[in-house]
Each structure stands twice: as C-alpha cells, then as structure tokens.
Amino acid sequence: MSASPGAVRDAVEVVRPARLGLALPRAAALTDALLAPSAYVVRASELQELRASLLRELPPLLEGLPPNERLQMGAYELLVARYHPERCAIRRDGFVPSPARCRRAIGVAAVERCVRGRASTPQTAVAEVLESGVEDLSGAAKARGGQPPPWWAEWYSGLALGGRATVQAEAVTWATQLWTALDWRRFERPPVVGGHDDWWDCPGRRQLVVRGRAEVRAWAGNRQVMLVVASGFPGAGWRPELAHRALVVALARGEGPIPARAVGLWPASGLVRICEVDATALSEAATALVSAVGTWVDARAGSRHDGVVER
Amino acid sequence: MSTTKTPKTASNAALTVRRRVRSRPGRDHGSCSSPTTLALGPPPTPESFGPGLPRDTPVVHAWNMLTSEPRGASAEVLLARLRGEGDERPAVDPGLAGGLRDWFEEALGAAGGFAPQAPAVRVTKEAVNQVLVCEAHAVSRAATPRAVTVEIARGVLVDALFRQWVTLGSFDEPWTDAVAAVECADDGAVLHSITDLDAPGRDRLAEEVREHAARIASAWPVSSPGWLARTQERLEVPLGGGRLVLSGVVDLAFGAPCAGRASVCLVELKSGARRLEHRGDLHYYALLETLRSGAPPFRIATYYSATGELDAEQVGEDVLLGAMHRTIAASERLCRLAAGAEPARTPNPLCAWCAELARCGPGQGRARSQVPKKTGDPTAGERVWTGDPSWEEEEVV
Predict the structure, then answer these.
(1) Which of A66, A97, A126, B304 has the fewest CB atoms found within 10 Å of its own CB?
(2) Chain B residues closer than 8 Å to A161 by CB
(3) Do the chains contact at A270 and B293, CB–CB below 8 Å?
(4) Inter-chain contact B294–A2, Cβ cutoff 8 Å?
C-alpha cells in the first residue's frame, strides 16, 4: 500500500535510502544487511512489561466494539488506521480476489520453488504454481486426499485466458522483484519464503487477533530475521510497521528468542529500511497497535449506526 | 607526485554532474535532445541541432543511439536492437543516483518545494508534459474527470495483450483475451466505454485490436524466462521525505538488476501514432529507474504496435541530465501550483483543444490566429479538448 498524501505530509524527516542504496549489486548488500549478527537483545523482563501494558490497554478499548464483531489487525489494518482512518468505517461486503490481491500469495510460492531449486526463474515458477493450484481443485486431487487448493485457485480457474494472463503477469512481476532483491546463495540455512503467519489472540478478549506476516524468514545465528516486501514507499511510520512483525512473534511465542531485525523492502521505490528489534522498537510497535485498535473500534462503533458498506 | 583520491560521495557526484552539465551551452530544461531524430531518413548533421550549438559540443549524438526499425521487422532484429547488440553496456557510476537525488532535492528545496506547509505533490509523465506546455492547461486537466475515449480504450486493451504476449507468448482470440484482461483488472471505466459503443463501433475497435495483436505476435520475440521480464512495473521515487513523489508505470522492464554495468531495458508500448512527448516519457522513466535502482537502464525503447516500429536508444548521461532538468522544472511548477499559485498561461498549439479555453484570453488569441482548424468542421476551434490523444497528434506531430 502506498503512503497517502496525508502520510506524505507526516513524513517530515528526509528519509534517506540506507546507504545500501549506493552499493551495487544491491542484492548482495541487502542480503548481508539482513543476515548480519545483531547486537540488540530484548530482556525477558522488558517483554513481560510490554505484554502487561498491552493487556492493560487493549481490553478497555475493545469494550467499544460491537459484540458480534472481531478485529484482525495485520500490517494492512495498521496502515489504514494511520493513513486513511476514514476507511476504517467502510465495511467490505466480502472478499473479492483480483490480480493485485493474488500476486503475493502466488509470488511467494513461486520464489519458494526457485529457492528450493524446483524452478529456475520466477516466470517458470509462477506458471507451475498456477497449474498446480488448478490441479489441486480437481476431484481427483481431492479424492487422493491431497492438500487443499490455495484460496485463489477457484477464482483463477474460472477466468478466461486474458484474465489468467493478467494474474500470471502480476505474480511474475512481484516474484521477480523479490527473487532479484536478495542473493540467495548467501544464506547458510535455507530461508522460509512465505510460510505461516504469526497470530496472537488477545487473552480474555476473543474479539481481537493480531497477525504478523513476513515474506522471507531467515536466521542470523540463532535468531530469526525477517524481510518484508511492501508496495509504494515507506511512510513516516515505517519503523513500528516493521517492528509489528517482531512484536507478534514475541507475543505469540511467549518465551524464546524474538526476531533480531525486520528489513523492509519497497521495490517500487527501491528503498530499504532496517528495523533492529530492541525494546524501543517493540514499544513503538505496541503503541501503534493500541492506537490502531482504538481507531478501528471507534470507526466500527460509529459505522454500526451509519451502515456504510462498500461492495 | 602523489595524488589523493577523494571518496565519491553522493554530493560529490551531484556536483560533478552539475559542473559538467553547466559547462554545456545550448541546453534548456524544457526540451529533450533532438526530437527531430525521430523522423525516418538520413541522420542529421551536428548543425541540425541548432545554430547555437558549436560543432565540438560534447552532446551525445542522438542519431547513433536512436534508430527506427522499418515496418515489419522480424523478432530477431527487434530483439537485437533491444539488447543493443554491438553496444557495450556502460559501467555504472555508483554515486550517480545519489548525486542526481541530492541535486533534485537541493533544487526543489531552494524553490520552496519542500517547505513544511507545502502540500504533497505526485509527478507523472503526463503532469510533466502538461505543466511544461502550459500551467493553466495542467491545472485544467487535473480538474477534469478522466474521459475514456475509443483511443484510450484501445490503448488499455492493447497494453493488456502485450502483457499477455510477454507472459504467455500466445493469444487465444485477441479481442476476447483483451476484454477478459480488462474485466479481471476491474477497469470499470474502460469496460463501460466498450459496452457503450454501438455494434459497428465495437466491431471496428475489435478489428483494430486484432490487428495490433497480429503485429505484436509477428514482430515481438517470445520472452525467455531468463530475461526476468516485469510488466506494468510501478516506479515511485519519493523526494524531500515524500513531499514530492515521482511516479510512473513501465509497460515492460527486463534484465537482471545491475551488478556494475547497466543491465535493464525499459519498453513502452504505444498503440497510437508517434508523438513528440514519447521520448521525453521514456527519458523520465530512465531517470526514475536510475533513482530507484541506483543504476540507469542500458536501453530504453518505444514500440508502436500500430506500425511495428521500434525506437530504441542507449541511456547516456545526456539523457538523464535532460530528463533531470525537465523534471525539476516541471516539479517546481507543480509544487508552486499545488501551493495555490496562479497558473501561468502559455499560448501553444493545443490551446484550441484546451478545456480552459473559454476562460483563457491568451489561449483564445492563439487558437483563433494560428491553430489550423479541423478540415470540414467550422466549429473545430470552439471544441473542447477532453483528453483524446488523437486530436493532439494532429497538431503536435
């Protein structure tokens, strides 16, 4: 999601591309930056304090949410709350797939194939992912007890050739940007591309679930590092937005090492931002989460009476 | 004697680039170099650049870089020209992009473009073209809702087919494919414009689209996966902390990212007639790609699907500096207008078609005295131009 004009106005600081930007080839520099050892440690006591403060602040906010509603707070919802709060009141009338909405799901599966050596280029890999998605839909695959088809497969299989080509083209472009952004030979352990999202259910308040998503998860020593691919360019709130991913991991796991860093890549602008995960970054992410939940609850409570629906 | 090497920082690079360009006579920020070279025929002589340009001026000779392919060129020839076979891919100065960025920000900062109270501005190739022609025209266009003409619909449909060709290397039935692509992308305005056509109009458009598809299929190489082709690639370069955003969407980019030598080729597809602004558009994209990726593309090209012609050129420093001057000049104006300044009115050949004409004294004077009217249409001078590019072409080319 691009930063809105409002976000742009907020971006008072002149954000410079990390000096990575001057090093060519960039893939090597970015990979080195992603995998570098981290000097930052978050103490268990700091994490406990953070969790306690979230559990103090979130439940009262959620009391304003209509009882039959549930909030799922991911990176997108954080961005909407920050840059387009007016959109929080719009109720979407069902999810409709589109080439732009499918490209990430297909793209990460394609890059994963490339990383595992099952395809040589994103173009080939995307074609294979699409084909296998349609195959998974077939009765034979279901009868064999194969894996369930991906969420986009049914919609995609119903498209005419021109529509399928558009979906494929979007995914190839997205996957190629990710595939060429990193030097995959530099990973000592194979990274996870896509993978499962992290989820945290707010204890005692089942109306709130927080989601963290990263495109690539790798390891710097024994600590996880994450690469996040976003569209447009980084807005003023890039740091808590990146740290949000680490926060969800920390909240969901409870104990154990938390990610060392989250690196943001905005291919459209070529910009990279590196968020070293320390207590301050997690605290900023927690503040942003509380603020976003407040914005969403206010909007939902207000729109219950207005009935704003977008189809 | 020993020499000390100074590290080449972004600012040093900017200064170096600026000194070099300032020493060149005959440059102005509003023009691309030698648009006349678009014409087919013998290459122009250095004198044809204009009387003010000395013979030894180190301008890159555009006719060596820009050549037009005869109609019906084969896929092999077209590919060779896209690859720039015979031309060495230039080494990339790693400080160039940072230097250009610094220069841009300094220039715009000095013009007040990044003042805290200044509104955010998004710059597109269309905005650059419009505001450099006439500020009042640009303001009027920005305020006019997008009107989808048959030509624009054709452009969207052919773009979709080109994307399909690059991705799949095949068509089923081009018209059906193109409409399905537009439906899938949920471009309601274009879909409505197609469904609003009467049956003969739709048939004509379908036939036209099929002709473009046939030309693409016969002349455009089937893309190899190793080219790493990206279609409809979005470029967004925020400057001044995001107060100004240079943006664009490139129809096709291919080549691996730069690893020391320029390695990316950008291609724009045009379904309409050749126009003067197309080179400026490409140069603008070359600048954006340089700022975004840290390396200029090695080649930029416009493919005309109506004729099968390809205009391709190398990206030298001259191209980037020309685009830089032009984009800075346009951005300064756009920032000023966004801050509420009164738009300047510049009479030009498009005045007769400008939506602002009724309120524009200088424009009326220009339209009545010099702009040729459409033959057979006595009211042509009073018609409002709402964005139909085919109208522009008649006047500008």
Answers:
(1) A66
(2) 164, 168, 171-172, 176-177, 180
(3) yes
(4) no
Single pTM value for the model: 0.83
What is the third-level CATH fold of B72-344? Lambda Exonuclease; Chain A (3.90.320)
| B38 CA: distance to closest CA in chain A (Å) | 30
**SS percent in chain A: helix, strand, coil, step 5:** 55, 15, 35
Q: Do B241 and A11 touch (CB under 8 A)?
A: yes
Smallest Cα distance from B228 to chain A, Å? 7
Any idea where the domains of chain B sit in the sequence? 72-344, 351-393
Q: What is the pLDDT along chain A (311 residues), one digit of tens a residue?
A: 344 444 433 332 333 334 455 467 789 999 999 999 988 888 989 999 999 999 999 999 999 888 888 899 999 999 999 999 988 888 776 788 999 999 999 999 999 999 999 999 999 999 999 999 999 888 666 676 767 899 999 999 999 999 999 999 999 999 999 999 999 999 999 999 999 999 999 887 789 999 999 999 999 988 999 999 999 999 989 999 999 999 999 999 877 789 999 999 999 999 999 999 999 999 999 999 999 999 999 998 876 555 544 44
Cβ neighbours of A12 in B, within 8 Å: 116, 241
Neighbours of B343 (CB within 10 A): 18
Q: Could you tell me if B330 and B132 are in contact, meaning their C-beta atoms sit under 8 angstroms apart?
A: yes
| Contact: B241, A160; criterion CB under 8 Å | no
Distance between CA atoms of B278 and B280, rounded to whole angstroms?
5
- CB contact under 8 Å between B240 and A173, yes or no, is no
Percent helix, percent strand, percent coil in chain B, to nearest 5: 50, 10, 40
